[in-house]
Amino acid sequence: MVAGLGNKMGRIVVTLFALLCVLGSGSAYSAPKTLLVVGDSLSAEYGLTRGTGWVALLDQKLQQQKLDTRIVNASVSGETTSGGRTRMPALLTKHKPDVVVIELGANDGLRGLPVAAAESNLRAMVKASRDAGAKVLLVGIRVPPNYGRDYSEKFFAMFRAISRDEKTGLAPFMLDGVAEKTEMFQADRLHPLASAHPTILGNIWPYLQPLLNAPLKAK
């Protein structure tokens, strides 16, 4: 009788242990995640009503899809890759993100800053993010040919080269379907209207979603 009870209790313990193992293995997928967006005015809702930019729309999408993700939008209007590189260590330490979206470069290109300098800054940001245990999505941008076609093409190609070498995600061009439509821009012809931001999110989401669905890394 006692032996039978002991065997039964043993089976219960084993079953509970197996259940805990299954739940533990799934926790990497279901645990809340933190998404850090480091960008410029294109992500900081410049000239827009709060809550209408692509980052805010992303937050709504995540809630609709019941993806437990906290978004930290650390974008600053006028930010360059140099500024982002300077701010990145403190942002990573403070927020401990699981995914980092880097949307920078437009202001470097508009000012005609050296492509090599922008590339160095972006690579440093990617490396810092990955060293902190975060997955990275790089967001590409095209700049007007103000400084010549060669400059603009090298600038655009820079994002793909970084993504390939550093093995990050890449949203090739955030303004695809927007850049060629003047009616989708504010009066300055640089910043999209709120009506363009669903398209911008549509350009980013297919490349961001796999990173959010991936299991968490141990930190």
What features would you describe in this structure?
- By secondary structure, the protein is an alpha/beta fold.
- 51% of the residues lie in helices and 11% in strands.
- The model is unreliable at 12-29 (pLDDT under 50).
Q: What would the keywords be for this entry?
A:
single chain; 219 residues; alpha/beta; 5-stranded parallel sheet
Question: Radius of gyration, rounded?
Answer: 22 Å
The share of residues in extended strands comes to: 5-15%
Order of helices and strands: HEHEHEHHEHEH
Q: Any idea what the shape is?
A: globular
Summarize the helices and strands and which ones pair or pack.
Blueprint (H helix, E strand, L loop, with lengths): L1 H29 L2 E7 L14 H11 L4 E5 L7 H15 L3 E5 L2 H5 L4 H17 L3 E5 L9 H18 L2 E3 L25 H17 L6
Parallel strand pairs: 1-2, 1-3, 3-4, 4-5
Question: What's this entry about, in short?
Answer:
With 219 residues, the protein is α/β, with parallel strands linked by helices. The chain is 51% helix and 11% strand.
